[in-house]
Amino acid sequence: MTAAALVLAVILFAAGLIGVVLPGLPGALLVYGGMLLYGVLTSFASLDANFFLLQGMAVLLVFSVDFLSTAVGSRRFGGSRYAVWGAVFGALAGLLLFGPFGIILGPFMGAVLAETIAGKQLQQAIRAGFGTLVGLLGGTVLKLAILIIMIITFFRAI
Which of 96, 88, 94, 133 is nearest to 114 (CA)? Predict the structure, then answer.
């Protein structure tokens, strides 16, 4: 049973890592779910409540990175809160209109549009849009790193 549980967990880990870069898959939740599934299938033989509590905190950190990285990137490049909200709505619209490529194009266009509507010059709006991209990409790298650390911690615990 342990081998089957490990295989299922690894499949969820892989899906979770893919989910960091592919929108629509909740990466952190898939990784955590793989750990939880392993724990259930092995009667929590090697994973205790503290392990799951710490991993849950890491999942919350991943969700925080999602929002904070875009906001920080936008602010760092002169964007306002309008750019941040524009990037969020742009990401959703971009995903719907352009598929996976829209997750990059959407936040940029949303931030630029929001800043332009808010009265900023086009050059400033483009700079804020670029900042949202930098934040988005930086956040993606950070989320990947956190998930990899979670997975390494899992393998060290079992």
Answer: 88
φ, ψ dihedrals at 121, nearest 5°:
-65, 155
Whether the CB-CB separation of 132 and 84 falls below 8 Å is answered with: yes
* Gyration radius from the chain CA atoms: 18
- For 62-118, the pLDDT digits (tens) are 988 877 887 788 888 888 889 888 988 888 898 888 877 787 888 899 999 999 999
Query: For residues 131 and 78, is the Cβ–Cβ distance under 8 A?
Result: yes
C-alpha 102 chain-centroid distance:
15
Backbone angles phi, psi at 79, to 5 degrees: -80, 155
Model confidence pLDDT, tens digit, residues 2-57: 899 999 999 999 999 999 887 678 899 999 999 999 999 999 999 999 999 999 99
